[in-house]
Amino acid sequence: MLCGMITIDLSGRTALVTGGGQGLGAAISQLLAEAGANVVINYLEDSGGVNRARAQETAGRLGERGAAIGADVRDPEAVSSLFAQAVERFGSLEVLVANAGVLRDRTIAKMSQAEWSEVIDTNLTGTFNVCREAARTLADGGRIVTISSIAGVIGFFGQTNYGASKAGVIGLTRALSKELARRRITVNAVAPGVVLTEMGRSIPEEVRDEMLKSIPLGRFGEPREVAEAVLFLASDLAGYITGQLLQVNGGGAG
């Protein structure tokens, strides 16, 4: 892929994108493939098969360089199997994008234990599970990109669970970058602002209107704009960048 006069070429590398079948994950998967990478698109099996269908549709657009594999990132054994299948399919694994996440907004006084646990287990423990497996699997010189959020930096009303999970991702990222530096594996986080994916549109309109007022560029982000930041961090251009938080939020607070 050409960025001005600079070419980002991920040919011969394989990337695993958790939650890669829809929204931001699909945009990331598409852009990594455009740069030449093989892409394993992870999804969570659901009773209606919707997630599988979306992941397979996304993988189908990538042709032979795309593969959809179901696994629950909250389950360490499922994560181990996911990585093994990815390596079996493409021969190696060089890039992990830890993107899988859920949103269960409610004020803390009304939040159930299940709503707290589901968000923490998916967004934070799930990121831990895939990063731990990546540390065991990725080739030296690989790339790990975690997806945090502006909510983990400044916090939003009704998002104590989500904000805590995404702040935890930032801390995990910074610590892991030090552990893996000796192997030249970089570990960085991307913190999007409000992006108009299906998850972004689920935020109540009145809340989104208030968020928009705080963005100097005067608009919400597009999935591809976040994907471009991920692509940069996954590329050779970012070889001397690790342990960092890249905020993609239109200049908003944070």
Summary keywords:
254 residues; alpha/beta; Rossmann fold; two-stranded antiparallel ribbon; globular
Describe this structure in words.
- With 254 residues, the chain is α/β, with parallel strands linked by helices.
- It has one domain: Rossmann fold (3-Layer(aba) Sandwich).
- It is 43% helix and 15% strand.
- Strands 5-4-3-6-7-8-9 form a 7-stranded parallel β-sheet, sandwiched between helices. A two-stranded antiparallel sheet has the order 1-2.
- Helix 1 crosses helix 8, helix 3 packs parallel to helix 4 and helix 4 packs parallel to helix 5.
- The longest helix is centred in the middle third of the chain and has 25 residues.
- It is globular and about 50 Å long.
What is the element layout, followed by pairings?
Layout: E1 2-3, E2 6-7, E3 14-17, H1 23-34, E4 38-43, H2 50-61, E5 66-70, H3 76-90, E6 95-98, H4 113-137, E7 143-147, H5 160-180, E8 186-192, H6 198-201, H7 205-213, H8 223-234, E9 245-248
Parallel strand pairs: 3-4, 3-6, 4-5, 6-7, 7-8, 8-9
Antiparallel strand pairs: 1-2
